[in-house]
Records
---
Amino acid sequence: MPTYDYICDGCGHEFEAFESIKADPQKHCAKCETDQLRRKIGGGGAILFKGSGFYITDYRSDSYNKAAKADSASSSPPPASTPPASGGSSSSSSGGSGKS
């Protein structure tokens, strides 16, 4: 069952009520005894666990995600068609820098 927020337009009294989804909204304010009570519209029922004890990577900031994406793109291996940088065999017989 969800928790609903209520506010009284007459006296400003605010409270939460644990009610069934099928239940009609409350109308009567217990504090000022008027029928000016209305249900507030909330931000949704999502639960966010932010704090110690939860996975650090669950709620990364956009700036962190952009930096991680850029870092992974720059550290990716070269394409397979590129010859290896270290040369074990050389076609030059001079054994130097490879210039003729």
Note: The CA atoms of residues 5 and 16 lie 4 Å apart.
---
Amino acid sequence: MTLESTQETALAAAEDHSCQTRVIDAERVAATRARGVDAGAAGDVASLFKLLGDPGRVRMLDALVHAGELCVCDLAAVVDMAESPVSHSLRLLRNAGVVRPRRAGRQVFYRLDDDHVRLLLELSVEHVGHGRDGG
């Protein structure tokens, strides 16, 4: 066998990533499936990430992390957006259980719904920063 044909065989083997057997470790597969997220919850998580996939909403949530709570007009000023899109985004975030409103007279103030939202945002920002630092 020549060096060239050996390299071609190795390349062909490397390109074939399919398993020769359907399940190698049935016990581990069963245990992992039992602990894994179900299809409904996976869909909910995907919807949440889609909702958070807007940079303006990320900036609004970050502002709420730092300020605690803000009214629509103050939040719009912080993120340098018009009040209408901020209000619309807050409605979507409220319906998804990400932010919570508090009425004070005619004014409505928004804050993060719970600490999970803050943690999710902070970890995401940290992860992005970690990737940018080359680590």
Note: The CA atoms of residues 19 and 57 lie 42 Å apart.
---
Amino acid sequence: MSKKKQYLKLLKLPGRTNPVARAPILSKGGAHQKTRSAERQADKRQLRKLVAKVGADHGPADLIA
């Protein structure tokens, strides 16, 4: 065996990665966005703020009409 072949054998170049073993979430990519649950929670917080604001304008006397 020539010295060049021995040297190349010692290098052990990295082989291909197994696409099945890779985490599929890593290949998703794309723009950064909030998750659906985060958007839903933000909507709930916004609704609670709005209800609290409307409720602050009206006192208990306004309920009796």
Note: The chain has a mean pLDDT of 77.
---
Amino acid sequence: MKKGKKIVIISLVLSILSMSLIACQSSSKSKNENQSMSSKQQSEIVEETTKEAKAEESSNAETSDQEITIGILQFAQHSSLDNCREGFLQGLADQGFVEGENLIIDYQNSGADMALAAQIAENFVNKKYDMIMAIATPAAMHAYNAALDSDIPVVYTAISDPIISGLANEDGSSAGNITGTSDALPVEAQLKMIREIMPEAKTIGIMYTTSEANSESTIQIYEELAPKYDFELETIGIQTSADIPLAADNILTKVDCLCNLTDNTVVNSLPTIIDKAFAKNIPIFGSEVEQVSIGCLASEGIDYIALGQETGAMASLVLKGEAKAAEIPFRTIDESYLYLNTEAAEKLGIEIPEDMLNRAQEIFDTISHD
């Protein structure tokens, strides 16, 4: 073979070997790069997953520690409604919602002023609170109307008749994004108790606010049951607290005793009515314990602290997302208790039967508003 051809062949062989080597190196480099990319991607995925887990954990922590804001609208300032509010806060605390820790309370009292109650309710809605809690019928109705176009749930308490008030349907289900508790009076137990203390009495008088639907519905129950215990019923309606002194003077000339409802305007002026009744030597029978403590002779009433606690438990279901307000029918506490005031009995010259003294839940020997 000629020298020139040998050189060409060798050159060709070297070129082929060189190309093969380059290809192998390229393949190895690509494989290493792929392995490197795979490792990097895995690292990025792990890092991203960790970030997401931490974010979720942080979010969960924020949710559990998040402060809930509840606006409490109380229609008037008197002890039974105060007890409802106290019980409500206790009921929430029992379920982990504690004021000052994870709960903010904005408490507002309208002082039995309808216009102010409406204004407070609108303000709560405008501030987009997590919930509105309304104490007494006028407060609940204003809160419900104010929150209609929002997603703010309303929880109420101390409503004698949620159905008559338009807050619940005939079957007890909620009329909207609202639920709560009723303080329906144990009317028959009250009538039986009055007859036991006053066996000769003939006429019971009731004062009520004409704008309170609950009062009118309760009077209907009294009208149905009074004849069963040989009582006649005398009623007088008022519009504002300014009407009470004259109305009290009027009705006290016609009755053997007065029987008080949970009518907010009347209860707010109860000390005035009690003083007038004592002057006429006519007893007043209250509708709950606090009215007895300030001078009513006796009452078959419910425990308003317990009523508030039940309301707080219902509210917690909504706050925890376990149920919507619209899904919870209103609840009523049926059990009543006997309360007596022995100083009032002494001032009126009335002797309370011994067996009543023995079964009373609580006996007051002073009149606190004196």
Note: The chain has 13 helices and 13 strands.
